[in-house]
Amino acid sequence: MPAIEIFDPMRPDVLKDPYPAYRALRRHRPVAELEPLGIWVVSRYADAQRVLGDPEGFSAALAFGKDATLLDDRGPVRRQLNLKFAGDAGGVVSSSDGEVHARLRRTVARLLSKPRLDVVEPAIGAHAHGVIAALAARGEHVDIVGDLAKPVAAQSIGALMELPDNVVRVLAGWADLTARALDPGDELSSVAAGPRVMRSNLASFRAVTAFLNAAARAAPGGPSGTAGSGLAGSWREADTPAAREEVILAVLQLFQAGYETIVSAVCHLMAAFVIDRPRPPGFPSGPDLSGALIEEGLRLASPVRATLRTAVGPRTVGDVQVPAGARLMVLIGSANRDERVFEEPGTALAGRRPAHLAFGAGPHRCLGRMLAHTELRYIVGALATAGAQVSSVAGARVSANILKAGYEYLPVRVAWR
Ligand code: HEM
């Protein structure tokens, strides 16, 4: 059977619950081309790990660089999903290879280091508690997405980069819009919507540039990275258009990486372990989510459900020959439910080995893991502490983004303590 008949990433109904299709792919077509989309899927754990762990064989720069789009001419509406996250001159950590990647990763790693997180953690806790206190004062009906996860995720990543509220608002709007543009059921994914998406990109570029100019003026002198977020210093030292683009893109990428993933993870953890549900056996009870439970939640519903790589030459993945230039969609959400590796893959079990791939693998492995755990503990823990009972309400809507798993709307009823 053609692989696209098993898993069609341009079908919103498949994306809303991809797990049956993932299972069938793993079984029948673990590495396969999705014709006519011109993209390959990799669905088993071992193959996903191999691709992500071999940066010389599989390029992130090519996969997310110039011309990285997914075009679908099959329906009445022409869809063009823009997968590019790279500047015309400057590089981005997730979309670069080799030495450029190593250099960019060092800079971002400083921003997400333990000492920096220790400084920002009280602000994250305060945001989470403040938002939850305001919700408790408002009443029992809460939308986990819009009322809780988005505001706290945006404020947290904003605090990390010292962004003012007006810039946080612009970037949150931009991140929401670009997420919709990667949903093949949304009007923003059509070729015709391209100019609207472009305008949002430009607005976010302008907002970040204005912020960096103001930050550099306010804190003149001193090398980058020595105080605060270090972004003002990096901006001052950027003396070419390419270097300036690099700093702007770093802010944009960090915002996007740290916003959508957290919103998705909060919703999935709430849905799996808090709403209507007792804690699964084997995990500590109580309102706080343990690190192990968070990890298992991320395995079960991986917020980054897929990432991309391009084969730089003919390569073998599993038993399949992949030609040079093949674009591979590595299905992390599928790999994390691979029954070859995880017994009862759809069930939460304590003490799983080996490690899941929700944070990726190899040299591009997520730099925001520590921040993610901190935020998730605060957001989900604070709500669970403040609400004696969180119960479901009809009407939840799952989103259909091709790269991220998440909710558009997750209504609950909270009986506040
Ligand atoms: C539960 C939350 C999160 C999940 C599941 C997640 C997942 C991932 C995955 C799968 C990758 C690798 C992508 C690839 O190989 O192409 C990645 C990379 C990355 N993540 Fe996260 N992430 C999360 C939260 C965060 C946060 C809060 C930040 C901080 C702002 C962040 C920053 C990054 C960065 C900078 C990279 C690129 C690393 C590189 O290319 O070297 N992530 N993340």
TrEMBL record:
Record carries keyword Metal-binding: yes
Q: Which UniProt keywords apply?
A: Heme, Iron, Metal-binding, Monooxygenase, Oxidoreductase
Molecular function terms from GO: heme binding; iron ion binding; monooxygenase activity; oxidoreductase activity, acting on paired donors, with incorporation or reduction of molecular oxygen
Q: PROSITE patterns of this UniProt entry?
A: CYTOCHROME_P450
The UniProt similarity line reads: Belongs to the cytochrome P450 family.
**What PANTHER family does the entry give?**
CYTOCHROME P450 YJIB-RELATED (PTHR46696:SF1), P450, PUTATIVE (EUROFUNG)-RELATED (PTHR46696)
The name this protein goes by in its record? Cytochrome P450
Organism whose genome encodes this protein: Kitasatospora indigofera
